[in-house]
Amino acid sequence: MGDDAPEAAPLLPFLGSFEYVLTVIGLVYTGKLVLEGLWKLITTARAHLWSRLWNKKLVETYGKWAVVTGSTDGIGKEYARELARRGMSILLISRTQEKLNKVATEIAEEFGVETEVVAVDFISGRPVFEDVARHLQDKDIGVLVNNVGVMLPHPMEFELASERDIWAHINVNVATVPVMTKLVLPGMLLRGRGAIINLSSIAATYPIPLMGIYAATKAFVDFFSQALEWEYRGSGITVQTITPSYVATNMLKFSELVHKPGMLNPTASTFVSHAIHTLGYAARTAGYWAHGIQCYLVERFLDRWVFMYGNYLWNSYLLHNMKKSQANSRR
Ligand SMILES: NC(=O)c1ccc[n+]([C@@H]2O[C@H](COP(=O)([O-])OP(=O)(O)OC[C@H]3O[C@@H](n4cnc5c(N)ncnc54)[C@H](OP(=O)(O)O)[C@@H]3O)[C@@H](O)[C@H]2O)c1
């Protein structure tokens, strides 16, 4: 009886078996790309659009105080302002006492919240954290923004970096992140709530020639922060990694090209006004929509060598431009 049963017609009769296998692989791969794209779209909409529909009460959700490192300029200062706008008291930690006093007064007057300052130079490493710890004691720390960061004065070959530059990258960009985290985490765990925001960079995606030490420190922050997020899921503590591209701050003042604000390199205030909404809605995000597109394209479609070679050419160009405009201004 079985012998007489008609054979099932092949799904794609015009294909041989080898072509059939290749077609199935192609379809599965395309399906995977489409699903990934859709997932990216949904998570991006959730972080940037859905999040704006709710006025998240940060003090109730995370706690009374926000601690921001590197908070007298650029991205850190804007985080301090946005968190204060949402009712949080702000502990500003940065290097220059006068700038700290000025920012603290501005924030207290504009938003009517408590402020406190700690002047430390993170380049000094371990000893400064005793002072920081004293200020953190007995405070309900709700949010820590691990923002402080330095970069070489401009792209350069590593041999030209000073020893101070090297220690600055290690002590400021790397060491402060886990040490500050260790200072606030036990209290957050006791209270079962809190948020830690870590500033990495798109520069963490692959190594970057002429900015190698900076990119390497940002890769540290990225990896550390993602691992932390995984460890403390379900504990009530939110860990967020931010990976911006260019933001027009003092860090980029070596080049008019990238320092001049535009759609791709927003001011710190525009950047943070977007990034702040993503807190609690995205564990790892560029923070700003145009940077999100850049990060997605780079991570999804650029080979490591294309990224590295492209960045080498781009940084060489920025350096060349900088030298040219310095020469012109000397004339
Ligand atoms: N700007 C960008 O394009 C960009 C892109 C991706 C990621 N990021 C990251 O975002 C973070 C903030 O960058 P930014 O561009 O806003 O920097 P910024 O404008 O140069 O501001 C840096 C802040 O950190 C403080 N600071 C610097 N060195 C310090 C030290 N040794 N001890 C204590 N405080 C110190 C500065 O204090 P003073 O006021 O005393 O100078 C200032 O308040 C960094 O982690 C950076 O890597 C920036």
From TrEMBL:
Residue ranges of coiled coil: none
Location(s), subcellular: Mitochondrion
Major localization listed first in the record, in broad terms: mitochondrion
CDD domains assigned: 17beta-HSD1_like_SDR_c
Annotated keywords: Membrane, Mitochondrion, NADP, Transmembrane, Transmembrane helix
TM region(s), chain numbering: 20-42
Cellular component annotations (GO), alphabetically ordered: mitochondrion
Organism superkingdom: Eukaryota
Pfam families found in the cross-reference section: adh_short
Annotated Gene3D superfamilies: NAD(P)-binding Rossmann-like Domain (3.40.50.720)
Family: Belongs to the short-chain dehydrogenases/reductases (SDR) family. 17-beta-HSD 3 subfamily.
Protein known as: Uncharacterized protein
